[in-house]
């Protein structure tokens, strides 16, 4: 038989933290939260740019309308109308770009929502069995207490202690 090195307590703790501990969930949540904040900042920046573009377009149309009122000849009118058309085309292009970017942001936000939901589900289930863990139990218990209080309905909790449960688990599995 060959000698297999034993893991130290620190190595076992590190493996636990890496694969089973709360730190992994916390890191995933932090990454997702940072991504959400970044995407929100990006959308806000786009909206600010769109508002600026819209304001600029309105100001251009107002100025060109005033110029049109005071135009003396056909060439001036033609030049003003061409300027209005260019401004309108630019505004339409900016709007299409904004719509495209907002669609991309919507997709990104949906992906982030799904990632957050997966992380939340992982945080509420036991990795070995896939069953709800103590955190989920606590959340559901609080939810039921709150609902009972809101509806003014009685609430009961029944707990059962099963003797020799380990033997049951060993025979029938988790």
State the major sheet: none
β-strand percent reads under 5%
Helix amount: over 70%
> Number of helical segments?
5
Architecture overview:
By secondary structure, the protein is an all-alpha fold. The protein is built from 5 helices and no strands. It starts with 8 loop residues before the first helix and ends with a helix. The model has no long low-confidence stretch (mean pLDDT 85).
Short descriptors:
single chain; 174 residues; mainly alpha; elongated
Map the helices and strands.
Layout: H1 9-19, H2 22-69, H3 74-123, H4 134-151, H5 165-172
Helix pairs in contact: 2-3
What is the structure about, briefly put?
Helix content is 78%, strand content 0%. The chain is mainly alpha-helical and 174 residues long. The mean pLDDT is 85.
